[in-house]
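Go through this fold for my students:
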Amino acid sequence: MVGRENGYIVFVTDTALASAVQSFEWAMIENAVGPSIQTTQHGEFAYIPTAVGTITLTVRLLGTGNSELAILSLQQDIAATNVELEDLIAGAKNEPGPAVSNPDVARELINDHNPYYQNVALTTPEVGQGFKRFVFDMVFDGALQRAPADRKRHIADLASSLNNQGADFAELSGKGAGVSGTRLAVLAMILPDMLSFTELPEPAEQRALADQELRDSLAALSEEQRIDLFNLLRCPKSNIRLCARIIESLRDRYFAGTNFEDVLTGMSGTRAHWIIRHFREGPLVRT
């Protein structure tokens, strides 16, 4: 999207190659202009397109003495931001009544993440759009809680902790990660062979100690497991997909047999309220 930041990440799965890479050289050509070249120490790069058209990105994986070890390339179309949304935001300023609650978050979700939450699907399909609405609301709420710069800083801190084998990983994992604000420990509970499903006491004074113990268990996972969790939550596409998976898992555990239309509307939304609390704070022991 024009004016929206694109993030690019290189995952090096070959152990020998990963150990030999010293830096990454990124060359960006936008609408036949360039290349604009930037070198990074890690396999991550960000770029903001300036006009509708195409971009071609090439990244060279460099070893000692800037020797080329591997090269990758990608071409993408550049589209304009959503005109209908901008008209809605502009129009709401001049109309009585409620406006778009947070235009920046609305722009992020509509322009940057729309395909990701639109494509979520339940393991067992059901009638209605309740599940997608719930996922959208959770992602919107996660994006509201922290600005993109704060989320990016948190991801960078987690990466630094992993790279340096820091003791602060347990503390950093207390914050929800990525656009949906997903807790690493909650994700680890629904993935195989990581953490056992553990409920925390609901009273805040008891929960603090139990949550610390849970995060210590998370930090005690193998380095490979912690890196896997981090990589799954750092990218918006997989972050949103796994947010949806957690929501479905919590529904199945606590309200089995209830479809998401009923989760949202039945019992005055009590079920939805509890799933949100389990996602953000827990899971919690329901008394």
DSSP finds 13 helices and six strands in the chain. The beta strands are 6-9, 23-30, 33-40, 44-47, 53-62, 68-78.
